[in-house]
Amino acid sequence: MKKHYQLNGEDVVLDDLQLESVRDFDGHTSQLLSYNLNGHVMNYEICLHDSIHGMLYKVDAEGPKHQVGEFQVLPGMGGKGLVINYAGIIWRCDELVTNKRKKVDLGDAPIISPMPGKILKILVEQGESVAKGQPLLILEAMKMEHTLKAPRAGVVAAILKAQGDSIDGGIILVKLEPADEGA
Amino acid sequence: MKQKINRILIANRGEIAIRIARTCKEMGIETVGLYSEIEQTLPHVREMDFSICLGSGPLSETYLNISKIIQIAKANGVDAIHPGYGFLSENAKFCKEVKKSGIIFIGPPPEVIELMGDKAMSKMKMGEIGVPLIPGVLIEDLKDKSIFDLANKIGYPVLIKASAGGGGKGMRIVNKASELLPSIEGAKREALASFGDDRVLLEKYIVNPRHIEFQVMSDQHANHLHFFERDCSIQRRYQKIVEETPSPFLSPELRQQMGQTALKICRGIGYVGAGTIEFIVDENGHFFFLEMNTRLQVEHPITEMTTGLDLVALQVKVAEGEKLPMQQSEIKKQGHAIEVRIYSEDAENDFLPCTGKILYRGTPRSPGVRLDTGYQDGTEVTVHFDPMLAKLIAFAPERPQAIKKLQQALKETPFIGVTTNRDYLIKILQSQAFLSGDVTTKFIEQHHDEMIKKLQDERESQEKMAAALAIVVATQNPLAKKTTPDDFAQFPSTWDELSGFRNGE
Q1: Which A-chain residues 101-160 have CB contacts (< 8 A) with chain B?
Q2: Is ipTM beyond 0.95?
Q3: Which listed residue (B295, B341, B361, B370) is catalytic?
Q4: Prior bond of B157 cis (ω within 30°)
């Protein structure tokens, strides 16, 4: 079996995936796993204590299984994918269904408000050419000023909010078009 | 004049309200707590003997509404009000109004709050007392060309900061003349929005400084004590994120000298209550008065860990008119304590605050670890309040052990559900610079890229990634107990897991 995942934004493919469910003596469900990741064969045993907490063991062919760490696992934002706390890192993972992935053209991605707040100052005008990293507007949120900068060079195609507007998080503030070739 | 306190109103929320209530419980004092309408399900509401709703609306209608809070205090027969930190804790008007209504304010007299709350006035006073100060001046007129002359004379980089402020709001470092006016303008705007006062100061910016502060406590009988230092050099956006005591930088002589200066300040201003005197220490061990916080500090737990004292209990005793129950020579410190502040913010995106629902907080399990938080599983982090989720504090006999203990505690406290600085804090505690004790207020600026890179490398490391994926596969396997999105609409609580449990059987 082959599975595609996206782990913290990186695409990862697991080959030769084999899974076996076993019950240990006190009724916990353990999963024995073996797979091939970039040519490395990995063997793990995962013991889930409840719906959140678990312990991860590495199983070597000869040696004893050894504990590599505990984890907590929960459904991701909006019920999409999983979020795992393991080894002092938060892992966000989605299973990718192949052939259904849309290609996003980042060249047209708008500037989105990272959080709710108030627009204090707009520093650019429509039609203005901006350089990568150039401040576009100042947002006040949580009593702090945050400067939103251009993620890439381009031309300001539209400014959808005005100075003094109170805004929600996740809404489009500025549309940035790629600069004309040779301009 | 002695007056026993039997009931306290805690004019605050979250972790600090809970922390104050814990001590009140131990002392047999009843607590009256506050909450706004959107906070009904938060832990601090349940911690109090009585909880009163402040209604809804902006902070000016709730936690900053002086008349409403005093009215609640009167209606509930409290003897005293503890303001915590932030909100009204350093508001002289509030302090006056509380006293006028015949209620004890747990904190210093209003005149002292007023004096130390104003950076310009407090500096003048410190000069009179003979406390070393950083050269600087109040900017009265933005257009004045003499600002440029002054900045040139002091020498770049210079610092612009709000006269009334704290917590990094309204602060700007200016490296060259062309940045001066926009920075002053921005600082004034932020100062006005945060403190209602747009006066700003221009001063010398000290390179490679350490932020070292002294905890003080004074009673109403002119006894002044200090409880040693806290090194709070690691800051982002001018807000502390890691604090420790003792400071790895201070020699016993310098500690003694700074402690004496802290006491001199307390005597000089007639201080009463708990306070913190912040100093900037340069690479050669010269220290300058920065500001005094006339309240309990966020990072007070590390002092409690190393001195074995309860600062809130001492605050209450002082407010009752008791004498401080010890001499300076009786205050001993032992071991090493470190605190980290877990914030809901994205360390990889300019420390932008984040919101969300905490699905799993976690609880550190090692002895010697303290978790002060106002959040638990299922609670929402909103834009209405400060994004600090928790303070995690570790205590051990030596610094290296305390660091290891805190790393482990952080691993056990992930706050899943909202983006936090947890992973980043672990990287700070693992960094060579921190391990060697080489910390200045430039720490984040200098080591940020390196720590982000380490974080990203670790995420990409074959071993850890493989392990994380194994967890994904195993938990998504239909044979395993499946967690669906619906499960966290009704988050599993311990009670759900007690099936078949019969009390008394």
Answers
A1: 114-117, 120, 138, 140-146
A2: no
A3: B295
A4: yes
